[in-house]
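User: What would this chain look like folded?
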Amino acid sequence: METPLVSVILPFLNPGPAFTAALRSIERQTYTNWELLLCDDGSTDGSLELARAIGDPRLVGWSDGKTKGLAARLNECIGRARGTVIARMDADDISYPDRLRLQVEYLRTHPAVDVVGCGMLICEEDGSAIGKRMSPPEHADVVANPALGFGLAHPTWMARAEWYRQHLYDPTALRFEDIELLYRAYERSQFANLPGVLYGYREMRGGFSKRFKTRLGRIRYLRARNQELGTGLFLRAAAAEGIKTILDAGLVTISARYQWLRFREEKLTPVEAAEWQNLVAVLA
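Assistant: Here's the prediction, encoded as structure tokens.
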């Protein structure tokens, strides 16, 4: 596994102005043996044509004109992936230049690990830095408290292709497809995270409806699998999601979401802040 082909999977639906920077961030990777699979989930904003206009043969885009949802499109990308390694990417985010190289190197030197993530810089819709969200490096800590979720940020995943094909997404798990997959897979998988910030994640100012649906769906899923996963896990998860929903509603009401994120997320070092500013400027 010296220089494996990395298949970066990126379904999108009307991604907006940040799409160009997302594409450029993959084009500018220091690791060059990749393909970017762009599955259009029914966009009407011309984003697929924009991607094709770049002219890089490693960008492979397609559309059937339908909207099937993220999980179904991720499975479609996994089915088309030619790489031995598959990496996730969101259409409005940014991968740091060394992201693919460092994740490939980690999987090469840690053959027992199935999926590796990384730390994320959190930014506003306009790209202004908020802070950073770090994930635990070791598997035991990643899966330490399933009731509260897993310390493995979905957009940052890089996984071995055989693992992904054994653990496809459930298209009925709307808005929580990553969590549902991890509940099925974590007891027979090995996860890890790189210690540095290698991904820029864009937090939208609103988005309460999306987060509410995510939490409601997760509670329903745990309740349906109550006997298998345990009543204790369901009750703890339901309580945690209820508290988060109330907090979200309050923050949206008073337009204080970004202020809360600045309080909650870890502070950036001056070097990290400068690196982000330079990266955003280069990709603009």
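The beta strands are 6-12, 34-40, 59-63, 85-88, 94-95, 115-123, 129-133, 158-160, 191-202. If you want, I can go into more detail on any region.
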